[in-house]
Design goal:
- The structure is a single chain.
- By secondary structure, the chain is an alpha/beta fold.
- It contains 6 helices and 10 strands.
- The protein has an 8-stranded mixed β-sheet with strand order 1-2-4-3-7-8-9-10, sandwiched between helices. Strands 5-6 form a two-stranded antiparallel ribbon.
Length: about 250
C-alpha cells in the first residue's frame, strides 16, 4: 500500500517531559523503532511558535510517523517554551530564540541520559536558528536545516559551526520566503563542511507529499544511509491512518 500523508507506521511512542536549566517543564514525544534499538536519533526543533510552529508541524509529525519503522531512527519532538500542541503546552513564554538555548540543552540532556545514539539536530525555519546558535554540543553528530532564514543566526554563528566541525546540510526551497538557494550558498560558504541542497519547486513550508518525501529522504541519506531511499509503499498490515486526515 502507498504511504500517504496520513500514514502512521508502527513505533514505540511515549510522551516525555524535558526539564530546562531555568526551571521549566517542556512536553514532547519520543518515537522509537518497533522491537529494535534505533541506529540514530533526530532531535527536532520546530518552526516559529508565534506563527503556528510546534512539535506537530507536519514534517516532524510525518517523520515520527514513518522514520522509526522505515529507517530505524528515534524521533524526539518537543514544544519549546510557551508553545502548545495536541500533546500539551510547555511552560514559559517565547524567548525570541535566546532563552530557548535552555530548551535545546534540555533535549540533548534527555537524549544523553536515555542513551539515544548518534544524535542529529533537525531544525526547521526558527528551529534552524536554534540549531546554529545553541546546537554546538559534543553529543551532536551533525545537523540538517530545513528552510533556514539566517535572520537570528548570524555569520558569527556560522563561523562557530565551522569551527565546531560537524556536518551541516541545508535544504533550501527554490521559492523560499526568506532565503533562496543562490543566496544560501553564498551565506553558507563560510562553513567548509556545509552542503546546500536547493529543492526545485519547494516553498518554505514544504507543503505537499512530494516535498515531504524529498525532505525525509535527504535526512535519512545523511543519518542512516543504509535505509535510503525510503520506500513509497509498505505491506498493508503496517499501515494505519490518523483519523480525519486524508
Amino acid at each position: 500500500m502507498e504511504i500517504r500523508s496520513s500514514t502512521v507506521l508502527p513505533a514505540r511512542r511515549e510522551p516525555i517531559e524535558l526539564h530546562t536549566g531555568d526551571g521549566l517543564r517542556l512536553v514532547g514525544e519520543l518515537a522509537l523503532p518497533p522491537g529494535r534499538p534505533p541506529v540514530a536519533t533526530l532531535v527536532c526543533l520546530h518552526p516559529l511558535p508565534t506563527h503556528g510552529g510546534m512539535m506537530d508541524s507536519h514534517l516532524y509529525r510525518k517523520a515520527a510517523n514513518r522514520l522509526p519503522a522505515l529507517a530505524d531512527l528515534a524521533v524526539l519532538r518537543f514544544n519549546t517554551r510557551g508553545t502548545s500542541s495536541e500533546r500539551g503546552a510547555s511552560e514559559g513564554v517565547f524567548g525570541d530564540g535566546e532563552e530557548e538555548r535552555f530548551d535545546v540543552a534540555a533535549a540533548l540532556e534527555y537524549a544523553e541520559f536515555h542513551d539515544l545514539p548518534n544524535v542529529w539536530l533537525v531544525g526547521w525555519s526558527f528551529g534552524t536558528e536554534l540549531t546554529l546558535k545553541w546546537g554546538r554540543d559534543p553529543l551532536v553528530t551533525g545537523a540538517v536545516l530545513l528552510s533556514p532564514p539566517l535572520r537570528r543566526a548570524t555569520d558569527a554563528d556560522l563561523d562557530a559551526w565551522a569551527a565546531f566541525g560537524r556536518p551541516l546540510t541545508a535544504l533550501v526551497p527554490e521559492f523560499d520566503d526568506y532565503l533562496r538557494p543562490q543566496e544560501a550558498k553564498a551565506r553558507f560558504a563560510r562553513v567548509p563542511q556545509a552542503e546546500v541542497v536547493g529543492v526545485e519547486g519547494a516553498k518554505h513550508l514544504w507543503v505537499g507529499e512530494p516535498y515531504v518525501r524529498i525532505v525525509l529522504n535527504e535526512i535519512v541519506r545523511r543519518v542512516n544511509s543504509a535505509a535510503h531511499p525510503l520506500p513509497h509503499e509498505v505491506p498493508h498490515e503496517m499501515l494505519g491512518e490518523v483519523p480525519g486526515e486524508g
